[in-house]
Each structure stands twice: as C-alpha cells, then as structure tokens.
Amino acid sequence: MKVVSENRRSYDEFVSSEFLQKQKLTLPNFTINMQLIDGKATAAAIKAEIAEEVKKIVESGGKRPHLAAILVGHDGGSETYVKNKVLACEACGFKSTLLRFEDNITEDFLLEQVDKLNKDADVDGFIVQLPLPKHISEQKIIEAIDYRKDVDGFHPINVGRMAIGLPCYVSATPLGIVTLLKRYNIETSGKKCVVLGRSNIVGKPMAQLMMQKQYGDATVTVCHSRSKTLKEECQQADIIIAAIGSPNFVTADMVKEGAVIIDVGTTRVADATRKTGFRLNGDVDFENVAPKCSYITPVPGGVGPMTICSLMKNTLSAGRKEFYD
Ligand code: GUN
C-alpha cells in the first residue's frame, strides 16, 4: 500500500532532481500519486549484491566469472554500451575480455572468433554486440554461439526455453524491466499490459515474460507500426512498455490515469547544449505523461542501467553453471 505523503516526498525530490534539471523540464506543482522508478539506483544495488556473491565464490576457491564481448566496427552507441559493460564487469568483480575488430572483417572470420570463445574453457559467457555490418548475418552469428554461453539470451534455444518458462538466459532488457517491476512491488497479475514494439531483443521476449504464469500473469497486447488500434489499446492499459524507438511517441492522451509507464527508448537526438552534441530521448513524452502515472521510468536512468545489470546477472548464472553444465 502506498502512502500519499511518501509519494509526495518522492515527487518533490523528483521535481528538483538532477535528472529534470538536466532535461530542462518543469512539471506542474500539484500533489500526485506518482513514483519515479530509479533504474540507476536499483542497478547499482544489484551490482553490489553480485559483487558480494563473486567475493564469496572466489574466497571459497571458486572461479571468477568471465564475460567476453566482441565489438565489430565503431558505431558510437555500441562503443558506449560495450564500454559500460566492461565497467560493470569491474564493479561486479568479473574478469572481462573485449575483442575488437574492424567492420571489414568477413562473416567467416567472425564465425571463427565465436567458435574460439565457444571452446575457451575460461570464458563463461560472451556477447557479440549488435548491430553488425550489413554483410554479416546477425542471425547466423547468434546461432553459432554455444547456447550455454549465450548470456544475451538471443540463441533460439534460450528464446524457446524462455517462452515455455524453463530456466535459461533471458534477454537483458526485458529481464531488467521485470526486475524493476518486482523490486517496486508493482502488481502485474491480471493487469492489461501493452507492449509497443515487436523486436526479437525487447518487444517479443517482453510480451512472453509478461504473460508467464510464474511472474507477469498479465493480459498482454503487442502493438507495432502497423497496429490500427494502438492508441485505443494504450488508453486501456494498466502497464505500457514502450520499445518502439520513436522519440516522444507515447503522449499524455494515450495514457490512462494511474498507469505504469516503462520507457525503453534511447534515441540519440541532436542537442547543441550538450558536450556530446546529443541527448538520449525516450519513447515517452515524459513531461506531459509523468503527472498521469502511478510509476514511470526516466530516460536516461531508467531501463538502460538495468539492461547492463541483467547481463551481469546472466554472467553470474553462467559462472555458476546455473542453467546448463
Ligand atoms: N545491441 C543493442 N542491445 C544489445 C544487447 O542487449 N546485446 C547485444 N549483443 N547487442 C545489443
């Protein structure tokens, strides 16, 4: 049960937060039963828990979990993601290895690198950062990864096991979102959940997880670019998970009072006031949607940090051989 005064405090903290000031946003000053979901703090807490676990494993003579990453080319977004993954490994006490290749490598060469990592007994899990250059088939590479080391949860064996509720590596963004919903004690059972987007990495696994009996237990609707009733579906939703990759797509008129809003969008939008020259923009018109919600994730600082933290969770599971020998 939420107490309004506590929520009032969290709203006030939020209004004066570094996040809003950075976004140069202002919100109307009235009492609202809205809570900001702090993915950054939740991810930091989970990484600290993982680091404790790793310490215990190593102290009792076990092997330090080892994550390897392959990065092909110099895509700005991928460079940042991989750098953050390596930093997260350090925070968790994992060993990490980064293999970098130019974007003119052949598909056969990349398949050989995957094979080497499959066979390397010291590597518990590894990822190939996507997207790959156009001349390389992402699906072929994903299927070449040993599913027992597929900590991204992209291999068809892990995707299939997840769909029928068997233990496996689950794609990091949907896993991070489920973790946030659980940690914030957000009721999902019997709720109407709309997932916007049908990608293999986020939309599809998200919908699968939200309909599972063990957790989720929701009535799930997936909408995408061709959906004719997208707005009406959103208006009826208790939970909206927006992973459509279109800045400010979800507007206030699409959201029911008291809805839970999870924003997966991270589109780079040009911003001359930033040192980097861009800012990250979510799929939700945060300024106008936030006052209507019971819970909402910000961008940045919401789902993003949870994605990396879930990859760390999967790597710990790989180190422990939790799902496969
Ligand atoms: N590109 C965008 N997100 C991801 C991810 O979760 N894993 C990999 N390997 N590539 C990505």
Please outline the helices and strands.
Blueprint: H1 4-15, H2 18-23, E1 35-36, H3 39-59, E2 66-72, H4 76-92, E3 95-101, H5 107-119, E4 125-128, H6 138-144, H7 156-163, H8 172-183, E5 192-196, H9 203-211, E6 219-223, H10 230-235, E7 239-242, E8 260-263, E9 267-270, E10 278-281, H11 286-289, E11 295-296, H12 303-319
Parallel strand pairs: 1-11, 2-3, 2-4, 5-6, 5-7, 7-8, 8-11
Antiparallel strand pairs: 9-10
Helix pairs in contact: 3-12, 4-12, 8-9, 8-12
The structure holds guanine (GUN).
Number of strands: 11
The run of helices and strands is HHEHEHEHEHHHEHEHEEEEHEH
Structural class: alpha/beta
Mean pLDDT: 93
Poorly predicted regions: 1-9
Rg computed from alpha carbons, rounded to a whole number of angstroms: 20 Å
Please give a handful of descriptors for the protein shown:
325 residues, globular, binds guanine, 12 helices, 6-stranded parallel beta sheet, single chain, alpha/beta
